[in-house]
Each structure stands twice: as structure tokens, then as C-alpha cells.
Design goal:
37% helix; 10 helices; Rossmann fold; 10 strands; 6-stranded mixed sheet; alpha/beta; binds adenosine-5'-triphosphate
């Protein structure tokens, strides 16, 4: 079943066109990754899906309904949750308070214990530091917190914008392992990554974005084996 569908989406910043006529789908249960160079329009695409940035043309459908003009907070209620690039956690709040904030859109937020425990199982490091202020966490820990907070909304679609950015190698492995685990538990994932090797090997399908346009799509495995992808994004060839 198609969960997310972007049809001919364009996004502008003033006169700059960041995304041009982009069409993509994410099926329920998939991990789909969007790879591309700096400035290709990956983050802008994510912002259009989460509703932070309006589209200038085209449409976005989620779970069979048109959400092109729906407010960002109402998209969270529908089941779209984003862990933004640059982490965006609340530095003056503790880990626990940050996690609570992630559930703000839920109607059933009286009992958050099970989800908090679930996040702590995925990220034991956060449990050890649950009363520590977000702003004092390391970069890798903040990234874990951002993902954990996004999960607190119990999303159907989790948007991850460069979760491996700035992380030490052992954290990178861990983050990708956890993304696969979250997906196996039933959450659909759309992942933006510069670490194309890891992203393609974890993803069911992938899209390549170049200067605002999709130039290639296929399974993760197909793109990993593609010579032009190897040369441009995998540092081999
Ligand atoms: P990166 O991997 O470097 O984060 P990206 O693929 O996510 O890149 P975007 O951040 O979506 O790319 O940017 C796409 C284009 O839109 C770039 O040319 C960028 O300069 C431009 N852009 C992004 N945000 C703004 C903004 N707030 N105002 C003006 N132009 C912007």
C-alpha cells in the first residue's frame, strides 16, 4: 500500500527553486532513502513532507488523503514525525522532558511510560542520562534523542534527515542498526543521507536527487551496484 506520494512537487525559497517537479512514493513498511550531493534539495523535500515549508506546486498525499495544504502539527497527528537535520532538540530540557514533548500531538499521552521505555531500550545511553539537560549531551547522544523524541509520536512514517551526520563510526553503525530495528517493528521510514553506502544497504528502495530533480531510482541493492552511483556517491570507480 502506498503510504506517501509526492506528485510533481516543486518548492521555492523566494526565486530560488530548490525542488523541481519531484515525484516519489513510499510504501507502507518500507525504508526508502533519498541520496544526493549538498544542496540537491533533500532537506527541502523533507520539510515539504512535514509541512514546515509550503510547496509552490504539485501535491502530497498521505494514507490516501491530500495533505498538501495541511498544517505541520496536524501532519504529526496524522502520523508523520520528523527528526530534523541539526537535531533540533530542546537544550534547556532534560532527556525525559524532551521525550514528553515528542508526544504532544497524541491524544493518549497520559501513559507515556511504555514508549519511554521503548526509546530507552533502543538507546540505553539515554536512559543512563535521563535527567541530564539536552544541551549538555554529545552530538551522537543528541541525535539519538532527536530520533527518540520523533518516535514518541508513535508515527506511521518517520522522517530522518541525515541521522549519521557528524557521528563517530561506532555511532553511525548503531544508528543504522536502530533504524532497521524501528522499521522491523512496523514504522515506515524515509531517510535522507549523505552516507550513501550505509543508507543504500539498509533501504528497500532509493531515489537519487540532483539539483532538485530525481535522476535515478531503484532498489537499494541495484543502486549500490550502479557504476555512476559508485563513482558519484560511494567514492569508488
Ligand atoms: P545538504 O546535504 O547540504 O543539507 P540538501 O540536499 O538537503 O543539502 P537543501 O538544504 O534542501 O539541500 O537545499 C536545496 C537548495 O535550496 C540549495 O541550493 C540551498 O541553498 C537552497 N536553500 C535551502 N534553504 C534555503 C533558505 N532557507 N533560503 C534560501 N535558499 C535555501
Amino acid at each position: 500500500m502506498t503510504l506517501l506520494e509526492l506528485s510533481d512537487v516543486s518548492v521555492h525559497y523566494g526565486r530560488i527553486q530548490a525542488v523541481s517537479g519531484l515525484t516519489l512514493t513510499v510504501n507502507e513498511g518500507e525504508i526508502v532513502t533519498l541520496i544526493g550531493a549538498n544542496g540537491a534539495g533533500k532537506s527541502t523535500t523533507m520539510r515539504a513532507i512535514s509541512g514546515i515549508r509550503p510547496v509552490s506546486s504539485g501535491s502530497i498525499r498521505f494514507d490516501g488523503e491530500d495533505i498538501t495544504k495541511l498544517r505541520a502539527d496536524l501532519r504529526v497527528v496524522r502520523g508523520i514525525s520528523q527528526a530534523p537535520e541539526g537535531r533540533g532538540i530542546f537544550p534547556g530540557m532534560t532527556i525525559l522532558e524532551n521525550l514528553d514533548m515528542g508526544a504532544y500531538a497524541r491524544k493518549d499521552r497520559k501513559n507515556l511510560e511504555p514508549e519511554i521505555e521503548h526509546v530507552f531500550e533502543l538507546f540505553p545511553r539515554l536512559k543512563e542520562r535521563k535527567s541530564q539537560m539536552g544541551g549538555t549531551l554529545s552530538g551522537g547522544e543528541q541525535q539519538m534523542l532527536a530520533i527518540g523524541r520523533a518516535l514518541m509520536a508513535k508515527p506511521r512514517l518517520l522522517l530522518l534527515d541525515e541521522p549519521s551526520m557528524g557521528l563517530a563510526p561506532q555511532f553511525i553503525q548503531q544508528i543504522f542498526r536502530i533504524i532497521t530495528e524501528i522499521n522491523k517493528e512496523g514504522t515506515t521510514v524515509l531517510l535522507v543521507e549523505q552516507n550513501a553506502q550505509q543508507a543504500l544497504s539498509r533501504a528497500h528502495r532509493a531515489y537519487v536527487l540532483e539539483t532538485g530533480e530525481i535522476t535515478k531510482t531503484g532498489t537499494g541493492r541495484e543502486l549500490l551496484a550502479d557504476d555512476s552511483i559508485k563513482e558519484a556517491y560511494l567514492g569508488v570507480g
